[in-house]
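Hello Y.,

Per our agreement to keep a running log of every chain we model this quarter, I'm adding this entry. I've kept the format consistent with earlier entries: sequence first, then predicted structure.
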Amino acid sequence: VRLTSWKINTTPNGSINGSINLCKDTNVVLTLNITGGTGPYNISFTDGSTVFSRIGKNNGDTLFLRPGSTKTYTFTSISDSKGCSRSTGFNGGAVVFVNSSLVDVTIVNYDSVKCFGNSTGFINISTIGGSPAYTYQWTRNGGNYSTLQNISNIPFGLYKVVATDMIGCKDSLILNIGQPVSALSISTTKNNVTCN
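Predicted structure for the entry above:
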């Protein structure tokens, strides 16, 4: 009696993993989770409006994409190296939320130090875009200075602020706050008056 063993090739299935929040005009890396079948695989996937294809992919491989708006990425087909394929009933997709606009921080107004050695400067800023609310980190001459949006009663120096929205997108600006070159000095001259 001759016994023959057969290996049954299961139909491949899978999901696209990596649901994240993304800053506008940046790339996202998504991971392929493919089970069953025999790799490598030829895959098709969609973002809801466009279908993309890749060949020779394996479980754990990555997709590098740059969505212009919020998208959900799901498989539309997986075919393995043995000819088994699936076009429905996939395990899940990746939702990529994309900020509709870039974070943009601008100066509203500012003033330099009025008198040498004093702390009378100020900087007021405005932030739009991204996903509010924002956090702020100010530095002065390279050292941490403040986490307020607007800073006042400040001495001269080179100031930089980084504004960060709630999903981590950033913008920054740099401003130099000056002061008079030296303290005001007063010199006196004594003149003797001769009366006639």
